[in-house]
Description:
The structure holds two protein chains of two kinds.
Chain A: H1 16-23, H2 25-33, H3 38-56, H4 63-83, H5 90-103, E1 104-105, H6 109-125, E2 127-128, E3 131-132, H7 136-151, E4 157-158, H8 167-183, H9 188-208, H10 213-219, H11 222-230, H12 242-261, H13 268-286, H14 315-320
Antiparallel strand pairs in A: 1-4, 2-3
Chain B: H1 6-19, E1 35-39, E2 48-56, E3 59-64, E4 76-81, E5 90-92, H2 95-105, E6 108-113, E7 149-156, E8 159-165, H3 169-178, H4 187-196, E9 200-206, H5 208-214, E10 222-227, E11 232-233, H6 236-239, E12 246-254, E13 259-261, E14 265-268, E15 273-275, H7 283-297, E16 302-310, H8 324-329, E17 356-364, E18 373-377, E19 384-385, E20 387-392, H9 401-425, H10 429-438, H11 458-462
Parallel strand pairs in B: 2-12, 6-20, 14-16, 15-20
Antiparallel strand pairs in B: 1-6, 2-3, 3-10, 4-9, 5-10, 7-8, 8-9, 11-18, 12-17, 13-18, 16-17, 16-19
Helix pairs in contact in B: 3-4, 9-10
Amino acid sequence: MTLSRLPPPKHQAPPKLQACLNRSAAFGYLEAFMPRDPRVFQIMALSSLLAFGWSQRAFDILPLGALAIVIGALTAQGLGSLLQAVKFDPKSAVITSLSLILLIRSESLLALGCLAALAVGTKFALRLGGKHIFNPANAGIVGGLIFASVNSPGLFWTTPGQWGTAIWLAALMAGAGMFVTYRAARLDIPLVFLGVFAGLMFARAIWLGDPLTIPALRLQNGALILFAFFMISDPKTTPDGKFARLAFASAAAAIAFWLTFFAQQSDGLFYALAIVCIIRPLMEWLDPARHYRWGDRPGAIPSVLTMFPARHKNPRNSSAAMPPHGTMPPHSTMPPHSATPPTLPAE
Amino acid sequence: MQKKHPSKLKRRVLAALAATTALGVTGGAVAFCGFYVAKADTKLFNKASKVVMMRDEDRTVITMANDYQGELKEFAIVIPVPVVLEEGQIHVTENAIIDHLDAYTAPRLVEYFDEDPCQRVVYERMVQSTAVDEAASPSLRRDKSLGVTIEAEYTVGEYDIQILSADQSDGLATWLTENGYKIPEGAEATLGSYIKQGTKFFVAKVNLEEQAKTGLKYLRPLQVAFESPKFMLPIRLGTVNADGKQELFVFALTRTGRVETTNYRTVKLPTDMDVPLFVKGEFGDFYKSMFDTQVQKENERAVFLEYAWDMNWCDPCAADPLSPEELRELGVYWIDGGPTPQPRRSMPQPQARDVFVTRLHVSYDAEHFPEDLMFKETGDRSNFQGRYVMRHPWQGDSTCKAADDYRAGLPKRFESEAQTLANLTGWEIDDIRTKMDDGGQSFTPPKKVPWWKRLWGNDKEDG
Lengths: 347, 463
């Protein structure tokens, strides 16, 4: 049987579902044929959402605008790869392009192309501790919005209401998002983010005496779900330590909540992510861990969802669930590479 | 990916950015042809409110049309406002301006006359407009005061206005009730929510003496001007204990582009549809049925875009664009005189007016719209209008192959128009077909004329 080719990861202390998934024969069989890189699934999910938006939600996205974004992003990726002498891999640039196509609008093709190039450019230019600081698409959106508000009103805008609040759509997006983030070992990020954000919104509604349908509808907004599962959960721009991730997602939710409801900022989600990305190095310094690499197995990465190992039947797993900081958990199928604990800059 | 020369690359990226200016490659607006024949203005809808919002950064001017029909002394309104307003921030304007804006932005029916398939000649005509029934609005009463801080009191035009702030919703509710404002049951919770958000309350009644001086039999629209980061319209108080759905038309006047809602989906109404000729006689009913059908299609949770256009022009025009004076009256403070707008059909050169108008239409109740409408201004300047087209078949008797083909194709076209109308309105397709048949749009294919009939002029002898 092919099942035996992929033994369950040794260092895994998952909750029941995760354990079941990892050990079931069907999943093991599928696993053998699935791409290891979660970006493949993310591209599929984002493309489906774009197709849905185009056909069912009449998104005002011109094909030429989408093309300008893709060209801008791939050009920057190619240039960055060339300058830094790394292999050209278009997947991240394609994800950035799809995110931008879904989330930002402009009437200017040139502006869209430049924005996409800027977004991908931040990945190469703004780095700290071996990681890029900002989520590229998020950096592009925030940069574009700030530039527009200062220099050219109306050059860029977002449309947070465009997805509507249909619960089936939110559930579908969340389902696809859970799969992708699970594959990227970041399922805890969207769940913690949405949990904290929902908690704050419900608490506010209760304090105000508002009907709870107000926060419930806000939670069903497709734009929020898209942000939680497909933007903030990027494994390359979230902390690798599980406690740092918990802090990261919670802080993003709290800042987004404040910006949305107190600062009346309809793009609060994007600004919140940019802000937590700036303070992320501090979180990583306090809770260092091995950097995520594309293709890492979900179960191999300690997660906030698995932080209570005592509940697990196998006591050996509980200790293995939290490997020493800065070390790579041993893994039968993982290629060896040097562990690089994040460092703060000399200054 | 490993970083090799971050500082070098950073410099290059920044240099590239500095060299990049955001030049626009914008698609031009497409000019429509056809002739405006009827409009569907807001009077078609019962319980319809009209609000004009000028918004530029944090600056806001809200104009509230007043279609109150009852005893003037019984009129009173309570409006949540974000700040305490000074007297100069409150104004009374004329209904005619809002009516003009309503007419300018209304969904429209246009008609074309098919040309002779044998000779390419164009016929043109204009017809009349329609408007239907009237509206009503809530009535409240006044007595005397108790508790609650009255931040300011003014008499502006025919209105006595008080700006209130409160600490407790029950205190405010008591004050309002004891002052004759009939607060609907259940409004206390909503008032409490507004109070906790730091909202002030603008309450207005009619000053009968001042009203008599105006010599008018109706109340004029109230306007307030303020600065606030909140770009929203409070609809919640109106939904408390409301009997059924209410209609709201929001006319946004902005500098950069279209306005949309952030907490509800904004959907464009179906537009540019070919409809049967009989719709001309019942355009009001058509529009109402179509709107209701679209509301249901979107699960009653969408705000509809009916018009989005640069205020410099229109095509076809349901009414001429507003004059600079009218726009200033509605709060467009950046306009000072300037050129008179071009009436119709010509896309103007860029001018200093920079006014973009968005007309949104929402049918709301507390169940489907529990939260106030939150807006944002976009940079989208593409034009949109609700436009429905009637195509009059060519009636001439020319004979040529093209004319035969044209006549043979008509039943198919009529069927397509019938299907479109049925889909848009939910009307019975058989009723539509019958009405079309009665109106001369026959679904029977024309009798095929033998080829030899045209030889030696036989067809003329028959005719």
